[in-house]
Design a protein that fits this description.
Layout lengths: L11 H13 L8 H8 L3 H13 L3 E4 L3 E4 L1 H25 L6 H8 L5 H10 L25 E2 L8 E7 L4 H9 L7 E7 L6 E5 L3 E5 L1 H4 L2 E4 L4
The chain binds zinc ion.
Length: 228
């Protein structure tokens, strides 16, 4: 029985492919090659070669003309990389004083090079945290992850009060904009009104500040409304 592959046994590029498929599978499964190409900002033709190689390694299930999904082994590696990413982000914010808009970029690089021992130490040092600075769930060491929480702010009806549970982390400008409005995980938000014709959302943050929030930003903020 060959030894099971872990993230360190494959190139950073291949790790990134598995990670992107993991994220895209939430909205599309199987994930089409063109969707992967768009997400990575590369030509579809260049995606196919990597995908075939990952299928040979039994990390992706590749169905021509349909797309790909992660195999069990592929998902294990994707979760390892996501875990590295999110623990690194939290460590940078909590221990090294980074702002939340500065950490994604660093984590994108470091996630590929840290050893399992380094990550295990960070995890222990941080007290086995469950969410990263942007509210995303951190996969456990044995490869389980909670489903992403919340509903997009843009989809929530006026009159609703909820709590910010997470925000998309990959656009530093957006994170800085949200910070100026005091929008971060844990903050209470009341949706007062959706302005007509796709205009901004009128919201109250933290019970006392009234803001207009652009709809492009509202697509990247997720809210728990406690109504199940
Ligand atoms: Zn990130």
């Amino acid at each position: 029985m060959p030894q099971e592959l872990s993230a360190q046994d494959i190139t950073s590029e291949r790790q990134d492919y598995l990670k992107i498929v993991f994220h895209l599978q939430y909205t599309e499964n199987p994930v089409r090659t063109t969707t992967i190409a768009r997400a990575l900002g590369v030509e579809p033709a260049s995606v196919t070669g990597v995908i075939k190689r990952l299928a040979e390694l039994d990390l992706l299930d590749y169905r021509p003309y349909k797309g790909v999904s992660l195999t069990e082994k592929g998902e294990k590696i994707a979760l390892e990389v996501v875990r590295n990413h999110r623990l690194i982000e939290l460590f940078l914010v909590e221990s090294l004083g980074y702002r939340w808009d500065e950490v994604h970029e660093e984590a994108e690089r470091l996630e590929h090079v840290v050893t399992p021992r380094f990550i295990e130490r960070i995890d222990r040092f941080m007290g086995h945290p469950e969410i990263d600075p942007h509210g995303e769930p951190i996969p456990t060491e044995d490869g389980t992850i909670k489903p992403p929480s919340g509903t997009r702010l843009i989809e929530i009806e006026a009159g609703t009060v909820g709590t910010v549970c997470r925000v998309d982390d990959d656009d530093p400008d957006l994170l800085r904009y949200l910070a100026t409005l005091d929008i971060e995980p844990g903050k209470q938000i009341e949706i007062v009104k959706h302005e007509l014709y796709g205009g901004p959302l009128s919201i109250i943050v933290g019970g006392d500040r009234n803001h207009l929030l652009g709809i492009e930003a509202a697509k990247h903020v997720f809210i728990d409304t406690d109504i199940d």
